[in-house]
Amino acid sequence: EPTPTAEPTPTPSPTVGPEPTPTVDPTPTVDPTPTVDPTPTVDPTPTVEPTPTVDPTPTVEPTPTVDPTPTVEPTPTVEPTPTVDPTPTPEPEPVSDLAVTASGRLTGITTAGSATVSGLPAGTTATLTIRAPLLAWFVNAPSGCTLRGGTLTCAIVGDGSDVTIPFRLIGLPLTAIRLSVTSNDLDDPDPRNNTYDLTL
To answer: Which helix (H) or strand (E) holds 118?
Structure first.
């Protein structure tokens, strides 16, 4: 085996001389602390006189508001009730007043007369009676009449107008000729004119 090479001896570093001690700057002289002027005495704040309390202005009571007079609502006009046309009063039916009259004339011993019946409405009936006076007799019975003794009876049918019945007598009448009329169809308002005395 080969012989190991020996490590070279290191070259010694040159000897370093000691670093010179640096010169120390002298400590600077410290200026003395200046004397501080004493704080001047502060005059005390004068006491402020309190502002006198002003009496508050009294509150004026407001004038009470007068309620306005309420407006009176006008009374509503009442609509007049319409006038109802009255139901026309029906014309009253004419009241039929049944009546009889007569007229006659005596010539010698003959009496010619006629009886008139009025107030007999159409369609109604009446009965006419003629009585002969003393000492006189009917000559005959007119149409629609019957003769019994000294009494002439006639049935009359009204037509709204007057009805005339002729008659004849013979003799010298000493009393009046009595005529009368009656009807069951009427409510006669004045029966006093339903009889008539004919004096010749």
So the answer is: strand 110-118
Quickly state the pLDDT bin for 28 (edges 50, 70, 90): very low
Instruction: Check: CB of residue 115 under 8 Å from CB of residue 100.
Output: yes
Neighbour count for residue 98 (Cβ, 10 Å): 24
Angle at Cα 81 formed by Cα 78 and Cα 85, nearest 5°?
160
Residue 167's DSSP bridge partners are 113
- Nearest 5°: phi and psi at 191? -70, -5
The mean pLDDT value for 60-83 works out to 70
Degrees, nearest 5: CA angle 162-109-175: 65
* Position 182, amino acid: T
Distances (CA, A) of 142 to 10, 114, 115, 151, 169: 215, 11, 12, 12, 12
Is residue 85 left, alpha or beta, with left meaning phi > 0 and alpha meaning psi from -120 to 50?
beta
Is the predicted pLDDT of residue 106 greater than 70, yes or no?
Answer: yes
